[in-house]
Design goal:
3-stranded antiparallel beta sheet; 289 residues; alpha+beta
């Protein structure tokens, strides 16, 4: 293939490159683009707000949240549960009322059938009752309750009522989808890099935090973990080489166990070896022949 083969217009074959170029220009077909490093959140950013955490807390699965954001999320889910539960109870009460009303109508129908069958004793009041029971009006015998309203969509003869299920009271993590409880959130603390020559703001700095034991700079490319007892963020290398030797916290000398180490979920580096989902797709209409 020559240098200018992709720009050649004298070929008799409609190449893949030309097809892709025309599809991009036409506005049809799904656009796929690889997510770069600048589009992935940093390791110290909240999974909800995607901003650096002011009061960072971590779940037992290692997902980092800002305390204000995750509490607001939990309160929103609780309000949503209360609203759904109220709708469910209202529908359940309506079904019970309909069931009682249906039972009363059936008993009334049985009574009317019994009175119609009794032909030995006939009175004027019974005759009037039979005449009203055999009326063709759609407002008697409880038919006014099922009168269709064509101007209300939910009461049209073709519309079916939506059956609500009892809502789930459990609150799930917005990232992992596992049950989330406020008492399971662990407050953590990052150790800032103390550089007297660097007077930039903390958000602007590229090297913001470090491991308090090894003084290694923390970033998305460095696997990190949280010590549950003290809340300090250290590198996984420090955990493997120092902490796991005798299971003692070098910062305060307390005893540790394997459950006290929570691996911190990283935001990503842009490389396929670290992240699984690094493609962004924008679906557009498909051009059909």
């Amino acid at each position: 293939m020559t240098r200018h083969a992709r720009n050649c217009t004298a070929g008799a074959v409609y190449t893949y490159h030309e097809k892709k170029k025309d599809a991009t220009a036409s506005g049809y077909g799904t656009n796929t683009q690889r997510v770069g490093k600048d589009s992935v959140k940093d390791f110290d950013c909240c999974c909800l707000t995607l901003q650096p955490c002011r009061n960072p807390v971590i779940t037992k699965n290692g997902y980092l949240f800002d305390k204000e954001a995750i509490l607001e999320y939990v309160l929103t889910k609780k309000k949503e549960y209360a609203r759904k539960l109220k709708e469910y109870e209202k529908q359940k009460q309506q079904e019970e009322e309909k069931s009682h009303e249906k039972t009363a109508n059936e008993e009334l129908q049985k009574l009317q059938n019994f009175l119609k069958g009794e032909k030995n004793i006939v009175s004027r009041s019974q005759i009037r009752q039979d005449e009203s029971a055999s009326s063709v009006s759609n407002m008697c015998n409880g038919k006014d309750k099922i009168l269709p309203s064509f101007w209300i969509p939910s009461k049209t003869p073709e519309a079916k009522e939506r059956v609500l299920q009892k809502p789930d009271k459990t609150i799930y993590c917005p990232i992992s989808g596992k049950p989330l409880k406020i008492k399971d959130l662990v407050p953590i603390k990052f150790t800032e890099v103390k550089d007297p020559d660097d007077r930039k703001s903390l958000i602007v700095k590229q090297a913001r935090y470090m491991c308090p034991i090894t003084h290694d700079i923390l970033s998305n490319s460095v696997p990190c973990a949280v010590i549950k007892t003290s809340g300090d963020v250290v590198t996984m290398e420090c955990v493997e080489k120092i902490i796991k030797k005798d299971w003692i916290n070098p910062l305060d000398g307390t005893k540790l166990s394997e459950t006290d180490i929570i691996p911190l979920q990283r935001g990503g580096t842009g490389y396929a070896a670290v992240n699984d989902h690094l493609e962004g797709k924008y679906e557009r209409p498909v051009l059909q022949a």
